[in-house]
Amino acid sequence: MGFFLLFHLTVIGAPSALTPSGVTTQSITEEYFKSVDSSNFITKVIDPKFPANVITTTAMISRPDLVGSPEKKFTFVIPTHTNDLCAFHLCCHKLIENGNGLVGEVVAMWIDFREISSEVDQIKQQFAEANIPFRMLRMWDVTKAQILPGWVAQQVAKLRVAKYISANNYIVLDSKNILVQPLQLSVFQSNQKTYNFESDILDRIEGQHIVWYQQTHQTLRKPWNGHDRVSYSVTPFVFHTKTVLAMISDIERETGKTIDQIILEELGTEFCLYNVYIRREGLLRRIHDSKSDVGLSRILWADPGPIGPIADQERVPAVFFGAHRWWLYNVKDTMTRDVLTLRVKRLLGITARMAWFCDDKCLRSEV
């Protein structure tokens, strides 16, 4: 999204706005590590990829409250805006249809200057009929009056929303993450903990994602370990709620900046921040189990083109499937576009009964 907005998180019908805790400007010093368990110690790390004054801990900061646990039902967080409404409606419809009784709550986040669409009332009614709690949070009137690009505002919101989540974990979806398979507990958790998904080792992460990870390592002063297994910065993504709150507090204290400023200025992402932070703090194995993200989600993009991924989804369906709104941009032949659209509608389970909120324009932007 290219638009800019004034960012603030307010619960409809609830008092007060989300206000970040006090931030003090200080460098990373031993003073900051007063909470470190006495068995831990601080060491300077000399690494060619980092300044010589990088400081890290060699063991996990002692935080007994940061412990992973499984969920009986899942809390989903979904940012949306006016231009995403059709996909958002489909996403919600399929959470109800394929949720298998495992959707505990859906928290939507409205990232738009415009008023919330009346279509959201229809979505709210669908959730009510399915006995699934649904909330819509607004984002504007920034507490600190900071102007943020829409994409940055979304990232900040996915972290700050933790203050409003009562579940131990929450799962962030994008509107285009459509649940096309019956949901199982094993998709997002083992018997003990929720999953931190892995795509590959850091040294093999490609594209803009590797740039985000490099910048995040610099921001968090964590030495680069190319053999760390991490995910791409994509949804679905599982956050441990208390760890997100601890991360915001820690990073704001370390840098003297708000999390809003960090994401805006440091060129990382919310998912990279979380992945690097839990590895830096030694928290990964305490709050999550690890699992490959193969088979979790498949999204159609304009580049390299939709034909291969559509065939892959038809052959081995991922749990979540969807399409970026410009997925057909490089397909110029009208007949081919129509055939591919029909195949995608079939894969998404879009029926004639759903035409009132999901037509072909929901699936594609015309060239």
Percent of residues in helical segments? 25-40%
Q: What is the mean predicted local confidence, pLDDT?
A: 81
Largest sheet: 6 strands, mixed
Supply the number of helical segments.
Answer: 12
- The ordered string of helix (H) and strand (E) elements is EEEEEHEHEEHEEHEEHEEHHHHEEHEHH
Q: Taking Cα atoms only, what radius of gyration do you get, to the nearest Å?
A: 21 Å
Strand content: 15-25%
Regions with pLDDT < 50 over 5+ consecutive residues? 1-61, 141-145
- Assembly of the depicted chains: single chain
CA(first)-CA(last) distance: 18 Å
With strands numbered from the N-terminus, the spatial order across the biggest sheet is 2-7-6-5-9-14
Shape: globular
Describe the structure in your own words.
The chain has helices at 85-98, 119-129, 150-160, 185-188, 208-219, 241-255, 259-266, 270-280, 284-287, 307-315, 334-348, 360-363, and strands at residues 4-6, 9-11, 42-44, 55-57, 74-80, 103-110, 134-139, 147-149, 169-172, 178-179, 194-198, 200-201, 229-230, 237-240, 288-292, 297-300, 320-323. The protein is 32% helix and 19% strand. The protein is globular. By secondary structure, the chain is α/β, with parallel strands linked by helices. The strands form 6 sheets. Strands 2-7-6-5-9-14 form a 6-stranded mixed beta sheet, sandwiched between helices.
List the helices and strands and how they pair.
Blueprint: E1 4-6, E2 9-11, E3 42-44, E4 55-57, E5 74-80, H1 85-98, E6 103-110, H2 119-129, E7 134-139, E8 147-149, H3 150-160, E9 169-172, E10 178-179, H4 185-188, E11 194-198, E12 200-201, H5 208-219, E13 229-230, E14 237-240, H6 241-255, H7 259-266, H8 270-280, H9 284-287, E15 288-292, E16 297-300, H10 307-315, E17 320-323, H11 334-348, H12 360-363
Parallel strand pairs: 5-6, 5-9, 6-7, 11-15, 16-17
Antiparallel strand pairs: 1-8, 2-7, 3-4, 9-14, 10-17, 12-13
Helix pairs in contact: 1-2, 3-7, 10-11
